[in-house]
Amino acid sequence: xxxxxxxxxxxxxxxxxxxxxxxxxxxxxxxxxxxxxxxxxxxxxxxxxxxxxxxxxxxxxxxxxxxxxxxxxxxxxxxxxxxxxxxxxxxxxxxxxxxxxxxxxxxxxxxxxxxxxxxxxxxxxxxxxxxxxxxxxxxxxxxxxxxxxxxxxxxxxxxxxxxxxxxxxxxxxxxxxxxxxxxxxxxxxxxxxxxxxxxxxxxxxxxxxxxxxxxxxxxxxxxxxxxxxxxxxxxxxxxxxxxxxxxxxxxxxxxxxxxxxxxxxxxxxxxxxxxxxxxxxxxxxxxxxxxxxxxxxxxxxxxxxxxxxxxxxxxxxxxxxxxxxxxxxxxxxxxxxxxxxxxxxxxxxxxxxxxxxxxxxxxxxxxxxxxxxxxxxxxxxxxxxxxxxxxxx
Length: 393
Prior knowledge:
- The structure is a single chain.
- With 393 residues, the protein is mostly helical.
- The protein is 87% helix and 1% strand.
- The protein folds into four domains: 106 residues, no CATH class; 95 residues; 88 residues; 47 residues.
- Helix 2 crosses helix 5 and helix 8 crosses helix 9.
- The protein is elongated.
């Protein structure tokens, strides 16, 4: 960052040094190669860019700071080196246009840092101010958008209700026209509901105004009592907020670990539930099979008792037959022949009588048919006699 000053001696010395520097630079350029010249040119360009930035920052600082204010501060307080240099620079800049009395003045590194820090703080304040303004504008736009969305939803609802109650519901089925009384009643109800809403919002607005006055009064009392929060308090609150955020992150990590362990536990529990379900089904199947086997065993026991009784009965019959067999006396051969002859004669007599019975049955059927035919003939010839017979019966 540079500025100008006065003095004829300084002008002469500066012109001589400028001539000698130009001669030395010409000698250097003559002796240097193209790469060295390009490198030196890049360095000069970088230095010029740096000086342009520093000059721009100093220009902004000088435009923002009024020299009258600086002079009053110098009179009342000890002026800082930066302010003194700025005053000198400003005074000398007003007279730097003479051309013959120019002298370069440079700021120290501390002064440059001080000016850059002040410009940085000023730029930060402007950014914060712009940020607050843009946030207000965004809040206004959000509120406008929300209001428009609410209005649109209300209009859609009103349109739906009007179509439902008036366009479709208020038509006369006979004429097909809308009944005027229902339309009038609909708009009267709407106006009544609007008035009720206006009254409700008015009461709410008055309540909010009262709350606002109370809060303003409390804020004024706190300002008078010195209880207003300062920047240090906000920093302390910010530090505490960061600490609480770190604690919340730790708790969230612990919660994630617990959720992970809970998920693993739930998976193990589901596995054991499936195993328990399979074992329960197997147990029920085995119980059913055991009950069936018990029923079968009971049935087998009953059948065994029956078989045992039949065996005892067969043994008793067998014993009786054995006793009869032991007591049996074989007859003589002639007696056996005589019995067989009697059996043959009896069988022959039985067959003869059976044949006679068959013949008699055939004769009986024949006579029954003849009797039936005679009765039918008599009924057709003399029906009155038949009726008398029935009457007598």
